[in-house]
């Protein structure tokens, strides 16, 4: 089965979603990510969704649930690169992604996770 790579950068994990998400892949990512948070002692997770043109309610909930699980495991989550169409869809679906911080790009997302100021 296809998997989404999770890169480790110090105490942070970086996930770049570059394929169309389907339900099974989303659940596998959630399992892989929570396992890696524990294994690597990660304090932050950056999820880059800039390649996604469409997010349905299941994927939106999965992102929110993954952030909640990360929080329980003492890691912050930042979602970056959200397309305007995805933001509109999430709002129309009533998904607020509570607990998920967002940033325009990877650089600003990393600054949020590390506490440094973005350029």
List strands and helices in order, with pairings.
Elements: E1 6-9, E2 12-16, H1 23-40, E3 44-48, H2 57-72, E4 76-80, H3 84-92, E5 101-103, H4 106-114
Parallel strand pairs: 2-3, 3-4, 4-5
Antiparallel strand pairs: 1-2
InterPro entries: Bact_StressResp_Reg, STAS_dom, STAS_dom_sf
Pfam family, one: STAS
Organism: Caballeronia concitans
What's the name of the CATH homologous superfamily?
A: STAS domain
Secondary-structure-based class equals alpha/beta
Main sheet record? 5 strands, mixed
- Total helical segments: 4
Q: What is the top-level CATH class?
A: Alpha Beta
Indicate the percent of residues in helices: 40-55%
Q: What would the average pLDDT be, to the nearest integer?
A: 90
Describe the structure.
Pfam families: STAS. It comes from Caballeronia concitans. This is RsbT antagonist protein RsbS. It is globular and about 35 Å long. It has a five-stranded mixed beta sheet with strand order 1-2-3-4-5, with helices on both faces. The termini are far apart. The mean pLDDT is about 90. With about 120 residues, the protein is an alpha/beta fold. About 45% of the residues lie in helices and about 20% in strands. The chain has helices spanning about 25-40, 55-70, 85-90, 105-115, and strands at about 5-10, 10-15, 45-50, 75-80, 100-105. The chain has a single domain (about 5-115), classed as 2-Layer Sandwich (Transcription Regulator spoIIAA), CATH 3.30.750.24.
């Amino acid at each position: 089965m296809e998997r989404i790579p999770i890169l480790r950068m110090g105490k942070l994990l970086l996930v770049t979603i570059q394929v169309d998400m389907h339900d099974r892949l989303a659940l596998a990512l959630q399992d892989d990510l929570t396992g890696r948070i524990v294994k690597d002692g990660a304090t932050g997770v950056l999820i880059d969704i800039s390649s996604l043109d469409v997010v349905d309610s299941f994927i939106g909930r999965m992102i929110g649930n993954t952030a909640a699980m990360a929080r329980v495991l003492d890691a912050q989550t930042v979602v970056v690169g959200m397309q305007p169409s995805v933001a509109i869809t999430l709002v129309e679906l009533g998904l607020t992604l509570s607990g998920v911080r967002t940033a325009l790009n990877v650089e600003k997302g990393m600054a949020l996770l590390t506490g440094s100021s973005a350029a």
